[in-house]
Amino acid sequence: MTVKLLLDRKREGHALGSAEIRELVEGFTRGDVPDYQMSAFAMAVCCRGMTQRETSDLTNAMMRSGRCLDWNVPTADKHSTGGVGDKLSLIIQPLAAACGIVVPSLTGRGLGLTGGTADKMETIPGYSCSQTLERFHEISTSVGVSMSVQTDEICPADKKLYALRDVTGTVASIPLITASILSKKLAEGADTLVFDVKFGSGAFMKSVEEAKALADSLVGGSRAAGRKAAALVTDMNEPIGFAVGNANEVAEALTILSCGDERLQDVADLCVEFAARMVSLEKGIPLDDARAMCREKLADGSAKAKFVAMVEAHGGDLDRFKTRFNRPTFKFRVQTTTSGYVSSIDAEKVAKVAFALGAGRAKAGDAIDPLAGVTLAVKRGDRVPVGAPLATLETTREPELLERLAADILKAFSITPERPEPRRWIAAEID
Ligand code: URA
What we know:
Layout: H1 3-11, H2 18-30, H3 35-48, H4 52-63, E1 76-80, H5 88-98, E2 103-107, H6 117-121, H7 133-143, E3 145-149, H8 156-167, H9 174-188, E4 192-199, H10 208-224, E5 228-235, E6 243-245, H11 247-257, H12 265-283, H13 287-299, H14 302-313, H15 318-324, E7 330-335, E8 340-345, H16 347-357, E9 373-376, E10 383-384, E11 389-395, H17 400-410, E12 413-416, E13 426-430
Parallel strand pairs: 1-4, 2-3, 4-5
Antiparallel strand pairs: 5-13, 6-9, 7-11, 8-10, 8-12, 9-11
The chain binds uracil.
The site of uracil has 6 residues, from helix 9.
């Protein structure tokens, strides 16, 4: 294979052969195909796209660049394209496990405005997401659920390619995003994959059309690889729940797992929708039956028990997690100067404030402040009088930050005389 000829053909918009794609990825993983040629390939794909068959070939080649796990039990996982206040995995994965499915979940540390699932879980003192694949396997099968970080043995080609895409303006391509996400999920080995593809100000995909196209591609690619799959396209224009940060999100997830706050019922209902699809597909039962089972396992404490068992298996200590909230932090409460209905809360603006407080990381390896973040006091549709609290900002960094960021967070809220339409979480479904 001559890489230059292959690049010429992709630049002219031709579809590449399966063997060509496989050899390109193998050569790149070995170091024989240099970064500049692989970057040119990524740019050609960005401009010319890929057929579904080419996308599947790229996904398979990247999946096979490392280890692939095998499970001899029913398995399912949920993947989110990421959002603001997105603690859904912390509830969905143990909930599906409580319904009798093994949920092996390899997750990431966040890069950008907010922490990833691994950052959130590691705010629990002692909890380690860094497990060997053998230990990940053991925890998943004995407890029913494990949330660990992907090791270097999984999809090394994706790690190398993503680093190039990040600096060459080639992230925004549906075939490349599909191959990147799916190669890791397929290598993880779950039989059923359910995707949460988010759109809106706080999401990677800004429009619902782009999100639907990615959802179609992820579901199509999963099925082509012999997995059961579904996707929900969900609204990420406003934060999920009240907590945006890391430790405060874990605390909120625990509240939902304990059915401890009626005002979080909308988030609990969304979690049930995802877990029910995992259970329905994996067990081959009607969606309504799976929904009923999930509601029961949330209400009777079984999902919370799975979460607690997973934390223990990963070395975490939930009692110490709770006492950490007594640590001194700098706090600032923001109040409204107008009365009316909270008609919107811009997710991206909230995330930028949480980032500035220390909740996210600008580059890989940066430390995050586990206790930093924003806790909203209101949600869309609430009626507020003048002086009502809107949010509390929290950081362990400089207190001077808080006053400046208070002005920024106020811009996230829109308060109007008219009551807004209720939030519609799910914009589309691919099943
Ligand atoms: N997440 C990934 O894992 N890969 C992408 O390309 C984009 C988002």
